[in-house]
Amino acid sequence: MARRVFNFLIAALCLIPATALLSFSQDKVSGKLKDAAHESEKAAEALREIMNTPDKAIPNDILASAECVAVFPSTIKGGFIIGAQKGEGVVSCRTPAGWSAPVFLDLTGGSVGAQIGGQSTDYVLLFMNRSGVDHLLSNKFSLGGEASVAAGPVGREAGASTDWKLNAQILSYSRSKGLFAGVELKGVSISTDGSDMKDVYGEGVNSREILLEGKRTAPEVVRAFPRELERYTGHATKTN
Predict the structure, then answer these.
(1) Measured between alpha carbons, how far is 138 from 121 in angstroms, rounded to an integer?
(2) Mean per-residue pLDDT over the chain, rounded
(3) Entry pTM
(4) Which of 43, 158, 184, 239 is the most exposed place for a label (fewest CB within 10 A)?
(5) 149, 184 in Cβ contact below 8 A?
């Protein structure tokens, strides 16, 4: 009896089409990429909503000058007396072939003061020169510590000032409760999200290979953010 059952199971498995087994494998891969794809889509949506705000968006000439752009959507900040904030985001850089595949990041920080409650904030970081990009390529760096950061000009304010062109390594912006403005985002740390990076690119991949050298391609499902950047900057190739 047991032998007949075993033979039946073997025969049934042989009847399963190869396409069904392939579909099962793809479902497993899709499951691994789900979180990374969601982060890329949220970052793309946040950037789109910011850039579609009349007179309050990131000025086009500043966005066009950025070497890399990072977005941390829906970062949570809150606490009682001792505050903390945490968020996840993505970054893409210019390469000879256009905007790079995304690298996945974590943002963490804390503060002490009279505060209560919590809020959700979108943060945008523009890396304006090679010095700023070098910090991005490290596993972890702090804003206002290793990396200098300044509030980015918004809308028509950029036309009245050229300070951002001088020494700013990183320009930072925030949007909370519908209000978008430049902000000095200091005292927070940016690090690579090893879990999402492994799910998307596998073991042993570093940020430089993806962001600058273009040695790694990303599955289409996680490319929502670089595609959104192309809408506002064109193909944005790097020529040097």
Answers:
(1) 25
(2) 77
(3) 0.79
(4) 239
(5) yes
